[in-house]
């Protein structure tokens, strides 16, 4: 039987975002299950948590979660979502307005078992310094979960859409335009592998995210439940299988603090 689809908060119902959130969630759970005893309540930091999608999901699973977000509107959305949760979940979540570069201001080194940094690195002016600061927040053996845009796949979306000019440009750049029209940076697996080794959180596992559905319009809704499960099963398998994962729109890297 295929795993049930996670029910994400309101505002996260589009197909492309649902695929990203669900596949990343399954991959995070796989890494947590493989590293920690069943039932252990972990200390988790979600740096750049956005609207709190993953943070709330992990709190529902019993973990203590701290969410750090610099955007006031996203932070408000996270707080509004948290307010609808039962008291037992609300008491496990702490939401802080702040930047991922400010972890040293808010927390002591080694304060967390798991640190998430999903969809943040592409906006960072000094990504290596950001990652080094996040790695310092991990206890020995702790897990760093990093989701980035895949620079080695920037030609895929325009190419599959028949935009040959865009496809040719994608081969020779690490800059792309996000859904809001902002030009940001993509990253490469080899470069991030070296960075993780240099900050004492070497790469333990990596996945691709959104292999087949990156070209779907952002506003596209969800298919029927059975079709969605098949789609998720295909995306999940592709995300852990070569050569498919290498052309995924996103990379999910998991480093372990030495």
Automatic annotation (TrEMBL):
Assigned keywords, A-Z: Methyltransferase, S-adenosyl-L-methionine, Transferase
Domain of life the protein comes from: Bacteria
Biological-process GO terms, alphabetical: methylation
A Pfam family it matches: Methyltransf_11
One of the record's GO molecular function terms: S-adenosylmethionine-dependent methyltransferase activity
SUPFAM superfamilies per UniProt: S-adenosyl-L-methionine-dependent methyltransferases
Keyword ATP-binding: no
InterPro entries: Methyltransf_11 (IPR013216), SAM-dependent_MTases_sf (IPR029063)
PANTHER family hit by this protein: METHYLTRANSFERASE, UBIQUINONE BIOSYNTHESIS O-METHYLTRANSFERASE, MITOCHONDRIAL
Name of the protein: Methyltransferase
Organism: Streptomyces filamentosus (Streptomyces roseosporus)
Organism placement in taxonomy: Bacteria, Bacillati, Actinomycetota, Actinomycetes, Kitasatosporales
């Amino acid at each position: 039987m295929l795993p049930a689809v996670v029910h994400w908060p309101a505002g996260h119902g589009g197909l492309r975002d649902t695929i990203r959130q669900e596949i990343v969630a399954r991959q995070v759970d796989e890494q947590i299950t493989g590293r920690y005893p069943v039932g252990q309540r972990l200390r988790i930091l979600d740096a750049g948590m956005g609207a709190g999608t993953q943070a709330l999901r992990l709190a529902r699973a019993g973990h203590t979660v701290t969410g750090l977000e610099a955007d006031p509107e996203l932070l408000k959305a996270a707080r509004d979502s948290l307010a609808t949760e039962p008291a037992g979940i609300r008491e496990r979540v702490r939401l802080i307005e702040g930047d991922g570069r400010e972890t040293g201001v808010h927390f002591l080194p080694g304060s967390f078992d798991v640190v998430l940094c999903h969809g943040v690195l592409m906006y960072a002016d000094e990504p290596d310094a950001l990652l080094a600061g996040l790695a310092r927040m991990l206890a020995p053996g702790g897990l760093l979960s990093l989701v980035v845009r895949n620079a080695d796949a920037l030609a895929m979306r325009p190419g599959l859409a028949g935009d040959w000019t865009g496809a040719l440009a994608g081969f020779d750049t690490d800059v792309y335009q996000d859904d809001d029209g902002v030009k940001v940076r993509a990253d490469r697996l080899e470069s991030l592998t070296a960075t993780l080794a240099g900050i004492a959180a070497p790469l333990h596992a990596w996945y691709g995210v959104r292999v087949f559905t990156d070209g779907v319009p952002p506003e596209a809704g969800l298919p029927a439940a059975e079709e969605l499960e098949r789609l998720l099963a295909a995306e999940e398998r592709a995300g852990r299988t070569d050569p498919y994962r290498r052309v995924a729109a996103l990379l999910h890297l998991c480093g372990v603090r030495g």
